[in-house]
From TrEMBL:
GO terms for molecular function: DNA binding. InterPro entries: AT_hook_DNA-bd_motif. Residues 106-115 have a biased composition (Basic residues). Pfam families: AT_hook. Residues 140-154 have a biased composition (Low complexity). This is Uncharacterized protein. Residues 70-159 are annotated as: Disordered. It comes from viral metagenome.
Length: 210
């Protein structure tokens, strides 16, 4: 405990001496004389005349000066700290890649898109108007050919009648697509055998029947 008190007293003395040296430079007086005076003053009786002491001390208002020095040093430290503005980088901002959006987007296939053959649709003239609904191949064949033999009571045709009702068609390719075509120029679908229209050889188009 005694050692701690001595350390505190020595620290206070050193601090006071440092303040006296600072004030001596500011007010141009002898710092050693002031230190001796303060050390002697600590031994003066409490009943010492305060007016005589104030005349001798004069400018040594230690408490006020300590407060002023502390405030000045604090302001000087704040003034020395310079806030540098944040430097902006030149050029365009960097583009952020969104991986999730890229994964969601379908990948584009390379190369040229496949060329689709367009069928020119020509409306029927008054002379070429037929029934509005499309007939199947069997219906067209049955309506175009009249059979001399009567149909059986079971509404089924035998092999001879089927052979008589068949129409000769050939595989026909038009603009890269495959069709069936008879001798009259009628065009049929390869898969469903449904009539699609009539091929106009002069204009090189397929006239679609409505």
């Amino acid at each position: 405990m005694v050692n701690m008190i001595k350390d505190i007293e020595s620290t206070i003395i050193n601090h006071v001496e440092s303040i006296i040296h600072t004030l001596s430079k500011k007010y141009n007086f002898d710092s050693s004389e002031a230190i001796n005076f303060i050390s002697n003053y600590s031994n003066i009786n409490e009943n010492t005349n305060s007016e005589q002491f104030n005349e001798k001390v004069g400018i040594f208002s230690v408490v006020d000066e300590i407060s002023q020095i502390s405030n000045n040093s604090r302001h000087e430290a704040d003034d020395n700290v310079s806030v540098e503005p944040e430097k902006k980088k030149r050029g365009r901002p960097r583009k952020m890649n969104n991986d999730t959006n890229d994964q969601d987007k379908p990948k584009k296939k390379r190369g040229r898109p496949k060329k689709e053959n367009k069928v020119t649709i020509v409306t029927d003239t008054e002379d070429e108007k037929e029934e509005k609904y499309q007939k199947t191949t069997d219906e067209i064949i049955s309506s175009s050919i009249t059979s001399s033999e009567p149909i059986s009571s079971n509404d089924e045709l035998d092999e001879e009648n089927l052979s008589d009702l068949e129409i000769d068609v050939e595989n026909w390719t038009w603009k890269g697509d495959k069709y069936l075509r008879d001798t009259k120029g009628n065009v049929y679908c390869v898969n469903t055998h449904e009539k699609m229209g009539i091929y106009d050889q002069e204009r090189d188009i397929i006239i679609i029947k409505n």
